[in-house]
């Protein structure tokens, strides 16, 4: 009986024997998509015979990054204004990029026409900065730069979220996005009043992310000289010294170097506004009233009175190693920037 059974088994086809003896070993086909293993069924016979049954891939879309000076005017500004918000909020990333470029065109060629829409437009630009698709993110950075250039101080109340995202994008690893964000930040420090911008930058100097602190420090160092001598005194030189001193011991060298630049500028302004009277023949009354200062009030004493002992020591170490002519050059630069405001 047993021999007959074995004989019958030997006469079965190989595939039939496998299915009868070990049905539990049958597994679905495993494919690899985007580097991850996924269960993927075999194509049906109909799909194999009929190529039209298989979905064809969409052609790749290339986004062109147009510099501001090469942008053309829109054909119908009113029509674009009516559709730009919907385009920015679209789920199609290509439509979002088109809408962002239209925002750039409107900012350059129809500044006044879009002014009343900034409260709706800027939050959507911020949304695009958060987009995981790099093309959308870079186009949003370029849009931010054009908005700063066109609207200057008109966007101060809407600046916080935009500033945060630009600092974040400028500190990421994707180089072409990072460079676009840095250009936008440079445009911001150039066109937005430093008096309005510095209070928004100072909290960023304490961000937990060291890269964000470094980018904020660079913006801070570019904004302080734009105040000029009088602007620094009006803003409060003690506030600026304290903010810069906090960056001297930061983790990244970019932050420390930016802090040194600011402190040298502030030292020059302080010493120009508070000259030390060394010549006994010179009378304090011969100086302007605001420059009459007791002989003992030096830069060193000022730092020691406004900073902790360790911070004051660090600031004095930085500001005392640079030759006087270099510091005077910074004063001249600060004065010239003040005259331009």
Structure description:
- The chain has 341 residues and is mostly helical.
- The chain has two domains: 63-192, Leucine-rich Repeat Variant (Alpha Horseshoe), CATH 1.25.10.10; 193-276 and 292-341, Leucine-rich Repeat Variant (Alpha Horseshoe).
- The chain has 17 helices and two strands.
- It has helices spanning 2-11, 14-21, 45-49, 77-88, 93-109, 111-115, 118-129, 134-151, 159-170, 175-191, 194-201, 210-235, 237-245, 253-273, 299-306, 309-320, 324-340; strands at 30-33, 36-39.
- A two-stranded antiparallel ribbon has the order 1-2.
- Strand 1 and strand 2 form a beta hairpin.
- The model is unreliable at 12-56, 277-287, 290-295 and 321-341 (pLDDT under 50).
| CATH topology descriptor of the largest domain | Leucine-rich Repeat Variant
Strand order of the largest sheet: 1-2
Instruction: Determine Rg (CA atoms, Å).
Output: 32 Å
CATH architecture of the largest domain: Alpha Horseshoe
Largest sheet: 2 strands, antiparallel
What is the count of DSSP helices, taking H or I runs of 4+ residues? 17
Region (Disordered): 1-55
Domain TOG: 67-294
Biased composition (Low complexity): 42-53
Pfam families: CLASP_N
């Amino acid at each position: 009986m047993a021999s007959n059974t074995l004989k019958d088994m030997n006469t079965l086809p190989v595939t039939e024997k496998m299915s009868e003896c070990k049905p539990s070993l049958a597994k679905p086909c495993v494919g690899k998509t985007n580097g991850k293993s996924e269960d993927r069924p075999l194509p049906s016979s109909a799909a194999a015979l009929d190529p039209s049954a298989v979905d064809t891939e969409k052609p790749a879309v290339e986004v062109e990054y147009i510099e501001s000076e090469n942008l053309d005017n829109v054909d119908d500004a009113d029509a674009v204004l009516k559709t730009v918000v919907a385009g920015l909020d679209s789920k199609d990333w290509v439509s979002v990029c088109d809408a962002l470029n239209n925002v750039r065109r409107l900012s350059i060629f129809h500044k006044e026409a879009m002014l009343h829409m900034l409260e709706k437009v800027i939050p959507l630009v911020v949304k695009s900065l958060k987009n995981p698709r790099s093309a959308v993110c870079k186009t949003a950075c370029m849009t931010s730069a054009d908005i700063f250039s066109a609207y200057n101080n008109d966007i101060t109340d809407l600046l916080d979220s935009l500033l945060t995202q630009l600092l974040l994008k400028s500190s990421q690893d994707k180089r072409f996005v990072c460079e676009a964000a840095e250009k936008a930040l440079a445009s911001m420090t150039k066109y937005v009043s430093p008096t309005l911008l510095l209070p928004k930058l100072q909290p960023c100097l304490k961000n937990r992310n060291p890269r964000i602190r470094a980018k904020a420090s660079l913006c801070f160092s570019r904004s302080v000289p734009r105040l000029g001598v009088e602007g620094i005194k009006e803003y409060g030189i003690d506030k600026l010294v304290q903010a810069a001193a906090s960056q001297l011991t930061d983790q990244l060298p970019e932050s420390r170097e930016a802090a040194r630049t600011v402190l040298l500028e502030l030292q020059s302004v302080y010493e120009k506004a508070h000259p030390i009277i060394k010549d006994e023949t010179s009378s304090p009354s011969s100086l302007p009233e605001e420059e009459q200062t007791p002989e003992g009030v030096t830069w060193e004493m000022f730092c020691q009175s406004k900073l902790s002992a360790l911070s004051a020591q660090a600031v004095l170490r930085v500001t005392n190693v640079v030759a006087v002519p270099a510091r005077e050059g910074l004063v001249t630069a600060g004065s010239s920037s003040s005259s331009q405001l």
